[in-house]
C-alpha cells in the first residue's frame, strides 16, 4: 500500500465493510515515510515515537498557540492551545484538582460510582459497557471535581451534545445542541454567582479565584459546538469533559474489549490481580484514546531529512507512536504484563496530561470491579461493538456484553471482593 493512499484511508471514516486496516496503514507510514506531507489537508503526519517526543519537548519550535491542537475542529480553546507563561499559569490552577490527595479522595467516589452502575445491571445478565459503566463513572467523577453533582441530569444532557462535536459520523442536531447548551449555560451562570460570593473547594471556585491571572480567558476562545461563548467557565468545563470524561470513557470500554478479545490475557489478569497496574498501562498503549494533536512550526527546521517550514502544521499520531517497533517488542500483541511500557497516551513535555493519575485510577478501579463482579463477561455475539468514528478520539459508541447474572449483593461494598480494590 502506498504511503499516500494509506494516509488518505486513515483520515477517512472507517469503511462499513471493515476492510481498512488502520494499524497496517500506520506501519507502512512508519517504515516508508515517517514524516509524511499530506495535501490536502496540508500538514505533516508524524508516526514515529521518537519524533512525537521530539516535537512535544520543543514547544519553541513546535507551538500549540498559533492554530491550536484540535486539528479536526480548527479550534483554539483551553490551555491545550497555549504555551509559555499563560499556559503555566492556567496549568498551575487546574493542577489543584489532581494532587495525590485529591485523586485518593476521588478514588473512593469512582469505586462507589462503579458499584452503583454494576448494581443497576448485575441481575440482567447483559449490558452495554459504554452506556452503563464507561460513560457514567468518569462523567460523575468530573462533575465531582467541578462541584456540579447536584445537577447530574442537566450535566449528562449537555455532555451528550458536546460528545457530538467529536464524532465524525453524527449529523449535528443544532437546535438540540443549542437548547442543551443554553440550559446548561444558565445553570453554570447561577453556579458562578453563588461561588463568587461563597467559594467552595471545587475547581470552578479555584478558577474564579484566579480570574485576575487571566486563567479563564485561556478557555474563552473558539468555543466548541454546543459551548456558547462567554467568560471562559463553559470552555473550561468543556475542556475537562473532553480531556477527562471522554478519553477515560473510551479507555475503559476499549480496555474491556481488548481483554475479551485476548482471552489468555483476561485469564492471566484474573489469576494475577497484582498485574493490574501494568495492565492499565498496556490498555492505555493499546487503545490510545487520544488519537492525535497538532502543532505549528514556528521556525524552519529539519526532521528525518524533511524540511518543515515556519507556519506548517504537524500532526502527531499517538496511536502510531504507541505501535512503534523501535520502542515496543511485538507492538501488535496486547500483553497485560508488558514491561517496560513507554507509551505516549498522556503526551510528554509541557503538555503532559494533568489528569494522568486520575485516568489511571479510574481505569484501575472500574476494571477491577468489572472483573470481580461480572463473572464470565463476554461479548454479545448478536450485537457487535459500534465504533465511535472520530479523528480526535479512538473509542466505542457501544459495547454490548453478556455475563452470568448474580444477586444484587454480589461483590458490592462490604463484600470480600472490595478488599482487593486499592485506594
Topology of this structure?
Elements: H1 3-11, H2 22-32, E1 35-38, E2 43-46, H3 49-56, E3 62-63, H4 84-94, H5 100-119, E4 126-128, H6 129-134, H7 136-146, H8 152-163, H9 174-197, H10 203-209, H11 233-261, H12 263-271, H13 276-287, E5 292-297, E6 301-303, E7 306-308, E8 313-317, H14 318-321, H15 356-373, E9 378-379, E10 386-388, E11 395-398, E12 400-402
Parallel strand pairs: 2-8
Antiparallel strand pairs: 1-2, 3-5, 4-12, 5-8, 6-7, 9-12, 10-11
Short description:
With 423 residues, the chain is α+β, with helices and mostly antiparallel strands.
Kindly describe this structure.
The chain has helices spanning 3-11, 22-32, 49-56, 84-94, 100-119, 129-134, 136-146, 152-163, 174-197, 203-209, 233-261, 263-271, 276-287, 318-321, 356-373, and strands spanning 35-38, 43-46, 62-63, 126-128, 292-297, 301-303, 306-308, 313-317, 378-379, 386-388, 395-398, 400-402. With 423 residues, it is an alpha+beta fold. It has a single domain, classed as Orthogonal Bundle (Cytochrome p450). The strands form 4 sheets. It has a 5-stranded mixed β-sheet with strand order 1-2-8-5-3, with helices on both faces. A 3-stranded antiparallel β-sheet has the order 4-12-9. Strands 6-7 form a two-stranded antiparallel sheet. It starts with a helix and ends in a 21-residue tail after the last strand. 45% of the residues are buried.
CATH classification class:
Mainly Alpha
- Largest beta-sheet characterization: 5 strands, mixed
Radius of gyration: 21 Å
Q: Provide the CATH topology.
A: Cytochrome p450
Let me know the CATH homologous superfamily: Cytochrome P450
| DSSP helical segment count | 15
Low-confidence stretches: 1-17, 413-423
Query: What is the total domain count?
Result: 1
What helical percentage do the residues reach? 40-55%
What is the straight-line distance between the termini?
48 Å
Order of helices and strands: HHEEHEHHEHHHHHHHHEEEEHHEEEE
Q: What is the mean pLDDT? A: 86
How would the global form be characterised? globular
- Estimated share of beta-strand residues: 5-15%
Q: Work out the oligomeric state of the chains in this entry.
A: single chain
Named CATH architecture = Orthogonal Bundle
What is the total tally of β strands?
12
What class, by secondary structure content?
alpha+beta
Strand order of the largest sheet: 1-2-8-5-3
Amino acid at each position: 500500500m502506498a504511503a499516500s493512499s494509506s494516509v488518505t484511508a486513515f483520515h477517512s471514516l472507517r469503511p462499513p465493510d471493515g476492510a481498512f486496516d488502520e494499524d497496517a496503514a500506520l506501519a507502512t507510514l512508519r517504515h516508508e515515510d515517517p514524516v509524511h506531507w499530506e495535501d490536502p489537508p496540508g500538514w505533516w503526519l508524524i508516526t514515529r515515537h521518537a519524533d512525537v517526543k521530539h516535537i512535544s519537548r520543543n514547544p519553541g519550535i513546535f507551538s500549540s498557540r498559533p492554530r491550536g491542537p484540535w486539528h479536526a475542529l480548527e479550534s483554539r480553546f483551553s490551555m491545550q492551545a497555549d504555551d509559555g507563561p499563560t499556559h503555566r499559569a492556567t496549568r498551575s490552577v487546574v493542577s489543584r484538582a489532581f494532587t495525590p490527595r485529591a485523586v485518593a479522595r476521588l478514588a473512593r467516589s469512582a469505586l462507589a460510582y462503579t458499584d452503583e452502575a454494576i448494581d443497576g445491571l448485575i441481575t440482567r445478565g447483559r449490558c452495554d459497557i459504554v452506556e452503563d459503566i464507561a460513560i457514567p463513572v468518569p462523567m460523575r467523577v468530573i462533575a465531582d471535581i467541578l462541584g456540579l453533582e447536584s445537577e447530574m441530569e442537566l450535566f449528562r444532557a449537555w455532555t451528550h451534545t458536546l460528545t457530538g462535536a467529536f464524532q465524525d459520523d453524527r449529523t449535528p442536531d443544532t437546535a438540540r445542541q443549542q437548547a442543551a447548551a443554553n440550559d446548561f449555560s444558565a445553570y453554570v451562570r447561577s453556579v458562578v454567582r453563588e461561588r463568587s460570593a461563597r467559594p467552595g473547594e471545587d475547581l470552578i471556585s479555584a478558577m474564579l479565584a484566579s480570574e485576575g491571572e487571566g486563567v479563564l480567558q485561556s478557555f474563552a476562545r473558539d468555543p466548541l459546538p454546543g459551548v456558547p461563548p462567554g467568560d471562559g467557565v463553559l470552555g473550561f468545563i468543556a475542556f475537562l469533559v473532553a480531556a477527562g470524561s471522554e478519553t477515560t470513557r473510551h479507555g475503559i470500554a476499549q480496555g474491556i474489549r481488548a481483554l475479551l478479545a485476548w482471552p489468555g490475557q483476561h485469564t492471566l489478569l484474573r489469576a494475577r490481580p497484582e498485574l493490574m497496574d501494568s495492565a492499565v498501562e498496556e490498555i492505555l498503549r493499546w487503545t490510545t484514546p487520544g488519537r492525535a494533536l497538532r502543532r505549528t512550526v514556528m521556525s524552519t527546521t529539519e526532521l528525518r531529512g524533511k524540511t518543515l517550514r515556519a507556519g506548517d502544521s504537524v500532526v502527531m499520531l499517538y496511536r502510531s507512536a504507541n505501535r512503534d517497533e523501535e520502542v515496543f517488542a511485538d507492538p501488535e500483541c496486547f500483553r497485560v504484563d508488558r514491561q517496560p511500557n513507554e507509551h505516549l497516551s498522556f503526551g510528554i513535555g509541557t503538555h503532559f496530561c494533568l489528569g494522568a493519575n486520575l485516568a489511571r485510577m479510574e481505569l484501575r478501579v472500574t476494571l477491577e470491579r468489572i472483573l470481580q463482579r461480572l463473572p464470565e463477561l463476554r461479548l454479545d455475539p448478536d450485537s457487535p461493538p459500534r465504533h465511535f468514528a472520530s479523528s480526535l478520539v479512538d473509542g466505542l459508541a457501544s459495547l454490548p456484553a453478556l455475563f452470568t447474572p448474580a444477586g444484587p449483593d454480589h461483590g458490592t461494598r462490604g463484600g470480600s471482593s472490595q478488599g482487593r480494590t486499592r485506594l
